[in-house]
Model the fold of this input.
Amino acid sequence: MKVLAAMSGGVDSAVAAARAVEAGHDVVGVHLALSRMPGTLRTGSRGCCTIEDSRDAWRACDILGIPYYVWDFSERFKEDVVDDFIAEYAAGRTPNPCMRCNERIKFAALLEKALALGFDAVCTGHYAKVIEDADGNRELHRAADWAKDQSYVLGVLTHEQLKHSMFPLAETPSKAEVRAEAERRGLSVANKPDSHDICFISDGDTRGWLAEKIEMETGQIVDQTGEVVGEHDGANAFTVGQRRGLKLGRPAADGKPRFVLEIRPKENKVVVGPEALLAVDQMRGIKVSWAGVPIAEVESQTEFDCMVQVRAHGDPVAAHAQVEPADDGRPELVVTLVEPMRGVAPGQTMVLYQGTRVLGQATIDSARSLSWDPAQVS
Done:
């Protein structure tokens, strides 16, 4: 099989490519240049796809004896990931750029180009598993190592994309084993730190970065009753669940800390309140997609039991879900939690599971708590 190995420059993608070669596939390595100005070196372990990463990917391909190319996806990345990130924050939502990158770059733009060039599959170093059911349909499942499982960020993959996806690290019991294997193979990235945080914000200062991209105006911070308790420098820089940096001029009556409950960019208001009001009972999702063939309840729009996860490393929570038709003809996903979940923000991605299987995902459009009605905040 002709396989295109996406080489980030890290240890996971290098070992995944090595395993694909060892399995007898015809493998070609490609590194994605996602920025026109990547800098010369990464800062600590932040970011990915820098010049240093490109060189590490080249060294790995050289050791593996496979061709190596760099593809410039910087314009597509800016439009589909960076600009989307800015627009979502400007609208008062909290986006996940890694989800958008997997959806629109690694498994849309990259896979599309790979198939056009005659490749059969794209291989990545993600920790996730693809399984075929009795009818030959492909399903996405959690990896063997749940601590490293990355099925959440792959929840946006469609049935057609899963047909051409290869995850050689699926059954690997630990990251330590991957590093040990890389060292045995003579790969220089064996002990390279994992990348983390948002790759295009190299210093990790999301608020400062956004301040340069979104026009910020001072406005009111109000509590859950609508009373003004402080002033902010720009509502768009806050996230639901945030505690630090509120600079409230008036303490709560009980002396306990307050958290961001809601962001209202049109009114330029930030709503704060006690931690207990962060608990969410129900979420409505838009931009719904299914990882593989949808289960029968999706087609019949009947309720089904599932687990829902709203963060890459968050704990899954038991829930009941149902697809509902919307006024614009696009389906919405309504998820009611068995136990409340804390700090859910519009713009986040909720991924549904049954057992280890990923059912699909949706972007959270709204989240509500039965404890208070946001409409009472004037």
